[in-house]
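User: Sequence in, structure out. Go.
Assistant: Echoing your sequence, followed by the structure tokens.
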Amino acid sequence: MRTVDIHNDNQNENRVRYDIDNEIAFAKREKDKLLCLIVGYGSSGKSHKVKNYAIMYLDELKEKKRIVDYILGNDIDIFNPKYQTFKGRENIPEDIKKSHNLGIIIVKV
């Protein structure tokens, strides 16, 4: 699984889209099943703007079938219905399953 940090204070929505497109293309070329996007969660613990942009764009990509699925780091819990329906859960490494990281998004490419 490839891990990429796309969060940055200077990011705008177009740059987030560009970064995600590039990383998905790279992951597909390398035949990676999952992509881990580090998007941040904001210093106050609330959603970081990059995370919000990423979620909106990943929703679009999922609807257009350019990605299979995605899950937020805080939803990675065996008792969470979102985790149970995530199509790539069997490929998530154990260390990520244990971390419940609020600042990541796992993408099934």
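User: And one key feature?
Assistant: The chain has one domain: 2-108.
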